[in-house]
Amino acid sequence: MNFRKLKNGVEVYELDKPITLEVKTKAPMKWLLIDRETGEQYIGQNPADGKMNWSKMPEKWNPDA
Description:
Elements: E1 2-5, E2 11-14, E3 32-34, E4 41-44, E5 54-56
Antiparallel strand pairs: 1-2, 3-4, 4-5
């Protein structure tokens, strides 16, 4: 079994193959995705042809500001 260590020290199980996580919403910009291993943050975007639905936020961005 493989594990990954998160920023807070917790270890989580790593699957053998990648999976897709899906969010269905009518308000994509209200969603914030946080990678608990790296601390990277992504905010939902309105869909556009050929573009990702998540946009990476600057490192020092504060979602509560």
